[in-house]
Task: structure prediction
Amino acid sequence: MGLRTPAEYVESLRDGRQVMFRGAWVEDVTEHPAIRRAIDHAAIDYRLAEEPATRDLFTVGIGGEQVSRFYKVPAGPEDLLARLRAIEAATTEGRTVVTLVHEIGTDALFALLRVALRCDEQRGTAYLPRVEGLLRRARREDWALCVAQTDSKGDRAKGPLGQADPDQYLHIVARRPDGIVVRGAKLHTSVSVNANAMIVLPTRALREGEEDYALSFWLPVATAGLKLVASPYLTGRRSAVEHPLSAEHKMIESFTWFDDVFVPWEQVFLAGEVEFAGPLALAFVDFHRFTAVSYKLPLVDLLVGAAGLAAQLNGIDGAAHVRDKLARLAMYAATVRRLIEASALLGHREEPDVFVPDTLTVNTAKYHFAHHYHEALRDVQDIAGGLLVTAPGWDDVQSADVGPALRKYLRGARGSAEDRLRTLYLVTDLAVSDLSGYHEVLAVHAEGSLEAEKLAAARHFDLSGKIALARRLAGLDA
Result:
C-alpha cells in the first residue's frame, strides 16, 4: 500500500481498542468528540503526504514505492534535514502542536536498528531481523506508531528491585514457548489512543538481577490486556476565535496499563539482556530529541511573530525596551534552529547504515530551548499586556449593547479593535492558556529533563582535551 489517505487512517482505528476517557470505556475512538479532535489533528501527516504542494517533502521512493518520508532510515545529513523540515511543516499546520504519529515511532525504530545489531553480535540473539520486519511492515502499511517508555517508577530513588511493588516497572511475569507475559504501566504515552501499534522501550539502564525488566517489544494497540486511560487535558469545546491554536488541535497522552499482556516472541526486541537496556534508551533519545527540537521551531517562531505583532498593534514597537525583548526573542529562535540543523550536519553513521544526529549538539539544542523557554514567555507576555487575561470575549465584541463601545475603546495604534483582540487571543492561547501550560511542561519534561540533557551533553564534551589544552598553555607540562 505504501501511503494511506486520512480517511483510511481514521478507519484503521476502529478495532476494538480499550480506551477509557473520564471513567467510561470508549466504544469507538473515531466517534468520541475529544479523541476525534486528536485523530483529525494526527491526520495532518497523511493529508500533507497527498497534497501536491507538500507531497515531495512528506514522501520518498523506496523499493519502487512511494512511502512516508518518516520511514526513511537516515543515511546522511540531508535525510535528517528533510525529516526536520517535514516535522516543522506538520507542526506549523497543527498550529504549534506536533502530530507525532510517524515521528516518535520511527525514532524508536532507528534506535532499535542500532542496538539490536549490537545485541545480536554480542549475545547471539536474532532481534535485528524482527526490527527490520516491523520497519518494512509499518512502512508498507503506513502505520501510526506510538512509544511507551516511562515506567510508573514508584519510589524514584530506587530501581526496579528496590520497589515495594515489583509492578512499578514493566516486567516479564511469565516466559512461554510462544512468547512472554508482561505486567506494569507506562506513563505519558503520546498518541497511543490514535496509533495502530505501540513500541515499548526500557526507561533506564539496568543491572544484573533486573533481567525481567530489560524489555522491548511491539504490539498492536488493540491487544488484549492493553488498557489506555486517556488524559482529559486540553479537551472540551472552545471558541475558534478565542483559542485559534488549540480549538481544533490536540495530542492525547495516556496512562498505559499492561494487565498481563501476552507478547509473541517474534514481536520481542529485548528480553533480559540488561546491558542493552541503557544503550537502547539513550539511542532512542538521540533521535527523539532531534524530533523534539524540530517540532519546537514553529513554536519559537510564533513567539517572536506574535510578540512583534502585539507590539505593533499596541504602538510600542519603537520603544527601546521592546526592541530589546524582540531582539532577545529573535536570537533565541535563531539559536535553537541553528543548533538543531548543526546536529544533523555534524552527525555520524553507525551500522546498520543509520545516520545519527550529533549527540552533544542535539542535547545542547534541546537544553537551550527548554532552559530559555519560560524567559521567552515572560517577554511575550510583557509586550502583549494585561489584556491577555482581562479582555472581553468575542461574543461581547459582537453584541449590539456593548460592542460599539468595546470597538471604540479597544482600538490600538494600528488596525481595528477586532484586529487587536484577535492578536491578543492568539497570544493568550500561546502564552497564558492551558495550551501554554502544556507547552511549558513539555519544555521541562518531554523527551528528557533538563538534567538529562545536561548530563548527556557533558558526557559527550571533550573535557579532558580542554584540560590538556589549559595545562599546555599554562606551561604545566613543559
